[in-house]
Amino acid sequence: MLALTExxxxxxxxxxxxxxxxxxxxxxxxxxxxxxxxxxxxHAESDDQVIEQDGATIYVxxxxxxxxxxxVLDGGVDDDGNIQFALGQQA
Length: 91
Hints:
- The protein has helices spanning 6-18, 62-68; strands at residues 3-4, 24-29, 36-41, 49-53, 56-60, 71-77, 83-89.
- By secondary structure, the chain is α/β, with parallel strands linked by helices.
């Protein structure tokens, strides 16, 4: 299962506090089948895996959950307030 860093849980919790319509982030496979997208979400889709960690929620669609099963999601916010995500391999 996808693991989340403290950076990511902090980002998700802050987004949910600042924008009431957002309760989570959703990671989904793009139509090309090779790219992933991250977007704000207010609910899980029927085939989503729900990851809850330290008060943060991430929804991952079925195809993406297989690809991400051995990954760690990290993130950060740059000086301009842009959120960036990165994937790493679980130890």
